[in-house]
């Protein structure tokens, strides 16, 4: 009975699938550590640009429920993974499936894919995301071939610019 307005506002936020907090979740998987390094570089750039909160989840090692919770809590999401057997790496695929099952929507999302040949994870992640409501998906998937190269920093800056708008 106390502070009823606070709880009604929370309910309104949750029931409309709006973000509770401004910030960015970066969910990733990394096989050899190169995707992790690209994600760390992105997180540093976002913080330097004044992003109020950047939360990073290694989906192969974190509590997946917390990673899902944070995707709903914060306003923007970056997904970064490797192509594995011509598909999305299993931990990332599981994460996307859980988001879809919980009706994830109304977010800005950027995608980073990694691989050396027959890279397809980015396209497949975007297909899954496109089935979700009101998703603003950054057009330019960053494709990392093994490791992030110096000449790809402008592409990374493009993601930063998209997310900071």
Q: Please, could you describe this protein's structure?
A:
- The chain has 165 residues and is α/β, with parallel strands linked by helices.
- It has helices spanning 4-15, 34-48, 64-73, 90-101, 121-130, 153-164, and strands at 21-28, 54-58, 74-84, 87-88, 108-115, 136-137, 142-145.
- Strand 5, helix 5 and strand 6 form a beta-alpha-beta unit.
- The longest helix has 15 residues, at 34-48.
Q: Count of helices?
A: 6
Share in helix: 40-55%
| Rg, Å, rounded | 16 Å
Q: What does the overall shape look like?
A: globular
pLDDT averaged residue by residue: 96
Head-to-tail CA distance between termini: 38 Å
Q: Any low-confidence stretches, pLDDT <50, length ≥5?
A: none
* Series of secondary-structure elements, N-terminal to C-terminal: HEHEHEEHEHEEH
Structural class designation: alpha/beta
User: What summary fits the major beta sheet?
Assistant: 7 strands, mixed
Q: Strand content of the residues, in percent?
A: 15-25%
Which oligomeric form is depicted? single chain
SS elements, strand count? 7
């Amino acid at each position: 009975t106390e502070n009823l307005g606070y709880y009604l506002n929370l309910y309104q936020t949750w029931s409309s699938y709006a973000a509770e907090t401004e910030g960015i979740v970066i969910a990733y998987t990394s096989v050899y550590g190169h995707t992790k390094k690209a994600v760390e570089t992105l997180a540093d750039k976002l913080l330097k640009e004044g992003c109020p909160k950047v939360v990073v989840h290694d989906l192969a090692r974190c509590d997946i429920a917390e990673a899902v919770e944070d995707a709903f809590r914060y306003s923007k999401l970056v997904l970064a993974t490797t192509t594995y057997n011509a598909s999305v790496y299993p931990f990332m695929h599981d994460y996307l499936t859980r988001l879809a099952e919980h009706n994830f929507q109304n977010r800005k999302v950027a995608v980073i894919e990694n691989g050396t040949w027959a890279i397809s994870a980015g396209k497949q992640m975007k297909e899954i995301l496109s089935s979700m409501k009101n998703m603003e998906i950054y057009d330019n998937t960053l494709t990392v071939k093994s490791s992030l190269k110096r000449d790809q920093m402008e592409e990374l800056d493009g993601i930063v610019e998209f997310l900071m708008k």
